[in-house]
Amino acid sequence: MTTYYYVLASQKFLLEEEPFEEVLKERTRNYQEQNKEIDFWLVKQPAFLETPEFAQIKAKCPQPAVAVISTNPQFITWLKLRLEYVITGEFQSPSDSIPSPLASLTSV
After folding, report:
1. Which superkingdom heads the taxonomic lineage of this protein's source (predicted)?
2. Which of 42, 59, 90, 92 is buried most deeply by CB count within 10 Å?
């Protein structure tokens, strides 16, 4: 199992109100320059929110939701400090109730 860390917000906030696309582009460019493997993904309507253990988190986040998921906890902490109206947390996957968050997505 892998530990994934996330920043969760409404799609409207993260993709329309914040200049977030530039943050992801800059981070991607930086990783490429350092020949570092991408360890973060932008996921619309993340599947982990549909599990019973995340019902309270889902209720707190305006829908539709979007998450940045990463295996790097420092990156998620940095995003939390940069953004205001977000929820952060972590989960283990794959598990009995949470499929891999990377199974059906494309890279940032």
Report:
1. Bacteria
2. 42
